[in-house]
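Consider this:
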Amino acid sequence: MKKRNGLGFIFIVGIVGLVLFVSGGYAALTESGESADKGIDEIDPKEVEELSWNEISDFTAVGKGYGKNDEIPVEVEVTFLDGEITDIEILSHEETAGMSDDAFDLVPPKIIEEQSIEVDVASGATYTSEAIKQGVANAIASEGN
C-alpha cells in the first residue's frame, strides 16, 4: 500500500481558505468567540420597509452604513420625492477598489427600481452592498419617523 504524505490535503485546505477569504465568507471573532464585525445594526431595514412611504415628505438626507472597512462608513445621499426614492448618490467610502465596484454600480439602481432596500447584494461585494442598503435605511429612517 502506498503511503500518502498529506501535502495534497494541506493544499486543498489552503485553497478553500483562500477562496473563503477573498469572497468575504468569513467573520472575525474576538477572544470570546463573538463576531468582531461592526456589522449593520443601526436601523433594522425591515422597520424602514414598514414605513408608509407615501406619507413621507420629500427630502434629501445622508445615511451611513458600515461595509468591509468597518472603521469608515459608506456614506450615501438619498433623494425621496412623491413617495419614492429617486436618487442615491455615494458620497464617500473607503471600500476596496475593484472588489466593491459592483456594489456601487448595481445596488443603488436596484433599490430605486424596486423601491425597496430589500434587494439582492452584489456577488463578491456583500459587505459593501449591505453598507449601501444600511445607509439608505438610515437616511429614510432619519426623515421618515
Q: What stands out?
A: The domain at 45-144 is CATH 3.90.1010.20 (Sufe protein. Chain: A).
